[in-house]
Design a protein that fits this description.
2,3-Dihydroxybiphenyl 1,2-Dioxygenase, domain 1, binds nickel (II) ion, about 450 residues, two-stranded antiparallel sheet, 11 strands, five-stranded mixed β-sheet, 19 helices, binds 2-oxoadipic acid, alpha+beta
Length: about 450
């Protein structure tokens, strides 16, 4: 809801994402190459498939495609996370989902800030995957205390960011000038700092505990570590990355290629070794740090709990068998996933995915049975289109983390009920993704019913 005189949250989010995309393009030029590849591939897919373009336009997804991105940051304390939550709320972004990465040996847990309603998503579905370091998972007490001391000393938000966030909370919005200033100020939090807050020895010790500990605790701020555009054909993007000599990840994370994409497929180019300057010493000591990378994703149908369970089952099966190590993993994955229906009607009838129901005619034919949804769909009166998955996949996220951390760290921490502690730090509950998708589907059915009754009574 936008109050007159205030800039809408959606507009602030769009302005912020444009500013951040521009900043990242200058900081990591390879990201610019990636955007070019994705734009080229998307344009080719759409020009070869007029029906897909028409579909995207009808569903209100066409406009968002070119500007769709997600990014990721990692923070060190609950207080930082709680302030982020308030700051993202100014941009209409709220915490959705809980991801425990500790099961994959990564000492963080995460949520994603994103718009929650369809109107906001179709305006600009910008998301930020946000991880909180779990210091309690560091065994060495001395290093744990050192990391905690470093984190307690840093201030990752500018004073103005905090003031403007308070102003938004107090007044219920920001006027144009304040909104523009907010965007500029918030950008500072995401900026890269090539100089560490520790000497080379401390960096090395924390890096040896886990590379993520160094990435979070040794720097002044939670630099944005990637920005991910959405493509309509991730295999084409992957092939082009390799053709251009970009150091891409070996396999695409997520489900295999299908006629009707489900969930999320992702690939990335490996993190760049960037020069950093350690604190202390006369001229400073130089080193390198690998944090920032590029990623591309293709999004598809949001699955119901039943569909998700089938996905997890097949993925585990594919990964657990001998073929998993083979070079033809993709083929192996496709073979295992042949048990996942790839027909929209079957997916819908078996309640494996969420759908958006819309009336697509001006007049309902006489004699149509308004209570028979299936026959209305068969007659072309109602259209059921896939609801797009807007969230992340923990197994994929772990794979992305690991490919950028030098690969093979598989140390696992005991899985625990840590969600409550993340929510406590956040100062709010995270929304449950399944509930959001189910809500969109139910709303569409209710709207449809009203429209059918209205069309019939005037017809
Ligand atoms: C986040 C990795 C997870 C995704 O798309 O699953 C992620 C990180 O490396 O901080 O971005
Ligand atoms: Ni990502």
């Amino acid at each position: 809801m936008t109050i007159p005189g205030f800039t809408s949250e959606h507009e602030i989010r769009t302005a912020f994402f444009m500013a951040m995309s521009k900043m990242y393009r200058t900081e990591v030029p390879l990201y610019g190459d990636l955007l070019d590849i994705v734009d080229g591939v998307n344009a080719r897919v759409l020009s070869a498939d007029a029906e897909m373009e028409a579909d995207l336009r009808r569903r209100g997804e066409y406009e968002r495609l070119g500007q769709e991105r997600h990014g990721a940051i990692r923070v060190g304390t609950g207080e930082e996370l709680a302030t982020l939550r308030r700051m993202f709320a100014v941009m209409g972004m709220h915490p959705v989902g809980y991801y425990d990465l500790s099961v994959a040996g990564v000492p963080v847990h995460s949520t994603a800030f994103r718009p929650v309603d369809l109107a906001g998503l179709n305006r600009n579905p910008f998301r930020v995957f946000t991880s909180l370091l779990r210091l309690e998972l560091i065994d060495d007490a001395e290093l744990r205390n050192e990391a905690s001391r470093l984190l307690s000393q840093r201030r990752i938000f500018t004073d103005r960011t905090l003031e403007l966030t308070e102003q938004y909370e107090r007044d219920g919005g920001l006027e144009e000038d304040a909104a523009a200033e907010f965007v500029t100020e918030v950008l500072e939090t995401f900026r890269w700092h090539g100089d560490t807050v520790v000497d080379a020895g401390t960096y090395k010790k924390l890096n040896d505990v886990h590379r993520l500990v160094a990435d979070v605790a040794c720097f002044r701020g939670p630099h944005i570590n990637h920005l991910t555009p959405r493509t309509l054909d991730i295999d084409a993007v992957q092939a082009e990355m390799l053709a251009r000599g970009i150091d891409a990840k070996d396999v695409i994370e997520g489900p295999p290629r299908r006629e009707h994409p489900i969930l999320l497929r992702q690939t990335s180019f490996k993190a760049l070794e960037e020069r950093i300057k350690f604190h202390g010493g006369d001229d400073g000591v130089m080193g390198t740090h690998a944090a920032r990378f590029g990623e591309i994703e293709q999004r598809g149908l949001a699955l119901t709990p039943k569909g998700r369970a089938l996905y997890e089952e097949l993925l585990a099966e594919a990964r657990g068998t001998k073929g998993a190590q083979a070079r033809d993993f993709e083929e192996h994955l496709e073979a295992v996933f042949s048990r996942f229906p790839d027909d929209l009607t079957v997916l819908r009838r078996e309640e494996l995915g969420y759908f958006n129901y819309r009336l697509v005619v001006d007049e309902v034919p006489r004699g149509a049975d308004l209570s028979d949804l299936e026959s209305l769909i068969a007659q072309g009166v109602v259209e059921a289109s896939p609801i797009i998955y807007e969230d992340f996949l923990p197994v994929s996220a772990a794979g992305i983390f690991q490919s950028n951390l030098g690969g093979t760290e598989q140390k696992s921490y005991s899985a625990s009920e840590a969600k409550a502690s993340l929510e406590h730090a956040l100062g709010a509950a995270v929304a449950e993704p399944f509930e959001l998708y189910a809500g969109v589907q139910e709303d569409s059915l209710e709207r449809l019913e009203t429209q059918l009754v209205r069309t019939r009574s005037t017809g």
